[in-house]
Structure formats: C-alpha cells, structure tokens
Design a protein that fits this description.
Length: 441
C-alpha cells in the first residue's frame, strides 16, 4: 500500500511500459496511439479497452462483449440514446456553422436550460468544454471583484487551460498551484470533526486570510459541489452554505462547478448546488450536457456579464453550435420524459444501501458516500481500515474482467467512483453487486 498522492490522470491508468501481455489487436492500437500521441496519451486499465459502440448503460468492445458502464457520465442519458442520435443527425444534415447567426435550436436550448435555474441566474454563455467554462468563470469573478485569489479543495480538478490548471491541484505531478490559489481539505469529518459545515467554512476563511496577508484579494470560492476528484463528498446537504457566506462577506464570488454533479446526477434536482441551499454567482457546466457532443457553458447574472462585456468581447466559434445545441436540447427532454432525476435518486439510493450492507460482510469495502448516481466507495485495508489504493486498482481490473467498468478518485486513488449513465436499472445494480461479490480484490 502506498500513501503517495496520485496525479488525477494516473488513476487506473495503463502503465504503457510493455504491450507484451495484451491481445494482438489491442497491442497494435496501443502502439499506433503511442506513435501519434506521445507522452501525454493516457489510457485506462492494465489492459486498455477497445470500444466500438454502446447502448444505454452498456459499452460494447471490438469482440462484441457488452460491459456494464458505471464510469461514464458524459453519455448522461445513456450511450447512443436514440433521441439524441436523431436530433444530431437531423441538425447536422441541415446546417452546422459558428454561432454569430440566429438559429431556432440554439435559442430554444438556452431558454429551456435557463428555466432550470433559480433567479437571478438568467444568462447563458456556451463553450465547448468544462475547462473553457471555468476559465471564463474565473475571468468574470476576477473582473467583478478586482481580486485574483481562488480557494479550491486540496484534490480539486477544474480543467486544463493555463488558468484552470492553476486551480486544479490534482493536476500537479510536482510542485503546487501558485500563490493566488489556496487549498482547503475535503469536506469530511476526518478533516473537520462532526461539524463539517463549520469546519469547512472556517478553513475557507483561513485561506482567504492567508492570501490577504500576502496581499492577494479573494475573487472566488470554486467548488465542484459533489467534490468528485477529492473522493466524493456530498453530506450533510447544506454544508456548503456557510463557506459561501464567508467568501461573499469577504468580497468574493461563489463559482459552482457543475461539470460532475449537474444535469440531475445527484438525484436532488438538476443542480448539485441546490442540495446545499445556495444560489451561486456563477455556474459552470460541461460533460453530461450534450450526451457526448462537445457543449459546455456558464450561467450567471446579468450584472456580472455586463461588467465583463465592458472590458472584453467573448466569442467561442463552436460553443453552442446548432448540432451541439440540438443534442443538448434532446438531453433535457430525455431527462424530463424518462424521469432520470428520480431514477438517479431511487436506483442510486438503493445501490448505496446495498453497498453499505455489503461492507459489513466485506470489511475491505469502507465508507460509502455520495448522492443519487454519484457514489464514492472507500477501499481499505480490512485489518487497519487505512486507505488501500493498490486494492482499489486490483478491484477495478477484476471488475473489468467481469465486464463492469468503474473508476477511481481521491488523493490516493482508493475511492471507487460510481457515476453510470442516469438510466441505470435495478437489474444493472444486481449485475454489479454480483460481480463485486465475485472479485477477490
Ligand atoms: N470541472 C470538473 C469538476 C471536471 O471533472 C472536469 C473534467 N473532468 C472539468 C471541469 C473539465 O472539463 P473538460 O474536460 O470538458 O474541459
């Protein structure tokens, strides 16, 4: 067992030193990929997966094997959902160009999306990635406050632009974020005792004090409200509110990164921040928005946008293009028509309950956390209860061999991360629990 903090892309990564043990067709693709993409290319699993198609909660590999997908939240309403496929096919056959013209579908989507937000969040900007959304949010916050400082959690990930990498401590292999970025421990009793809300708020305030002492004013508290890369921390609902009050009292904004918890995943409405009873100043969105089409965005207040527009223009050539908007509109329709928020609450709640029961018989399964269909499960040394990232990695590969796809999270990589498409069924849960029970770890 190691206690070393893992860089986020190292979790469940193919180590790449040898392709000798791989199936010949997989080895060929791995070699081709290495030749084309070089040192930054990352793949999952000891034996990378060659996927060709998908449907619902299943990913199908080149040899025709159907794998239960508990990992991918990008195809949020299910792989290749027929409604989304049809919407994309229809729009791409009509027109897809940049966004400085008028399009019905883009305006239909913006209005439908904004209707899911509380006042005063009534303006949308479309981008292509969560990183671009967070980058834009930082620009809004810095202009509005005149501050530069950002508070994030210790293992946060918010994306890959220059500015956003600085607020993503989990991206660093060496060194730390710059002085204008301060980190606070993840919101869990092991860090703050029983009063997580009070402890987390005090830590945020201390971080603001520390940057102020160095002459840096706070611009924002930036949180993924399910704290996914930190290891999935959802409870108690409402704990974020006190920290948001503190940052606002010090002149900063609250940016809610909804790339992970957004679009119904927590089972408690469309947005993760709602579980905390807060209305952010800026909300950023990404991955699940277009069921695989690159569409992402920012929702905020008119005054913050006006302040920004007084200084800069913003145009994103592909952001919210008609094909991506058609996909995103279909996603909102499917979430509503198939009752996927309620499904996330019910099936996710059942899965969490079953995992907690299993953990009594199987002490290597530790704490189960999360909300809806975003669960984190600690894998621990049964003797000591200490985090066991090596066992988590073994388990992930054993599940892969049993046709169940799952990932890891947390600073050490010992937290199983469960975030399937939102259409996960009871039969899928049964299949997963059977596979899990069969894994030796
Ligand atoms: N924020 C969070 C919380 C994320 O998990 C991610 C992606 N994993 C991003 C932002 C960045 O999104 P993208 O990869 O689309 O740039």
């Amino acid at each position: 067992m190691t206690e070393k903090t893992q860089q986020i892309l190292a979790l469940n990564a193919f180590d790449g030193t040898s392709t000798a043990a791989l199936a010949p067709d997989v080895a060929v693709l791995v070699e081709r990929r290495r030749r084309s993409f070089g040192a930054t290319s990352v793949l999952f699993y000891e034996e990378p997966l060659h996927v060709v198609t998908g449907r619902g909660t299943r990913l199908i590999t080149a040899d025709g094997t159907a794998c239960l997908d508990l990992y991918n939240n990008v195809p949020s309403v299910g792989h290749c959902h027929p409604r989304v496929v049809a919407a994309v096919q229809d729009q791409v056959a009509r027109l897809n160009i940049h966004t400085r013209y008028l399009f019905d579908v883009v305006h239909d989507y913006a209005e439908k999306l904004l209707a899911t937000f509380p006042a005063p969040l009534d303006k949308a900007i479309f981008t292509c990635t969560g990183s671009e959304s967070n980058d834009f949010a930082l620009r809004l916050a810095r202009l509005a406050t005149g501050g530069m400082g950002v508070v994030v959690t210790e293992t946060a990930y918010h994306g890959n632009t220059t500015a956003v990498t600085e607020v993503s401590p989990s991206s660093y292999k060496h060194g730390r974020p710059p002085a204008h970025v301060r980190t606070v421990p993840a919101p869990h009793p092991s860090n703050y005792g029983a009063d997580v809300a009070g402890g987390f708020a005090a830590a945020v305030e201390a971080a603001i004090d520390a940057m102020a002492a160095d002459g840096i004013a706070v611009a924002a508290l930036l949180c993924d409200s399910i704290f996914s890369s930190d290891g999935v921390y959802a409870d108690p609902p409402g704990f974020l509110a006190a920290a948001v009050d503190r940052v606002r009292a010090r002149g900063g904004l609250f940016i809610a990164d909804e790339v992970q918890p957004g679009f119904g995943r927590t089972g408690a409405g469309m947005w993760g921040f709602a579980r905390h009873g807060v209305v952010p100043d800026v909300v950023t969105m990404g991955k699940p928005m277009g069921n695989g089409l690159p569409i992402a965005g920012v929702v905020t207040r008119a005054d913050l946008l006006e302040r920004f527009a007084g200084e800069f223009g913003y145009f994103n050539t592909f952001g919210g293009n008609p094909v991506a908007s058609a996909a995103a509109l279909a996603v909102l329709d499917v979430i509503a028509e198939e009752g996927l928020v309620a499904n996330a609450a019910r099936v996710g709640g059942r899965l969490a309950g079953e995992l907690r029961t299993l953990s009594k018989a199987r002490p290597a399964i530790g704490e189960v956390r999360g909300a809806g269909l975003y669960l984190g499960v600690d894998i621990v040394d049964p003797a000591t209860g200490a985090a066991d990232p090596a066992a988590a990695t073994r388990l992930i590969n054993q599940l892969r061999a049993r046709r169940v796809l799952i990932g890891a999270a947390g600073p050490l990589g010992h937290v199983l991360k469960i975030r399937s498409p939102l259409c996960l069924s009871d039969a899928d849960v049964d299949l997963f629990l059977e596979a899990l029970a069969d894994c030796p770890f």
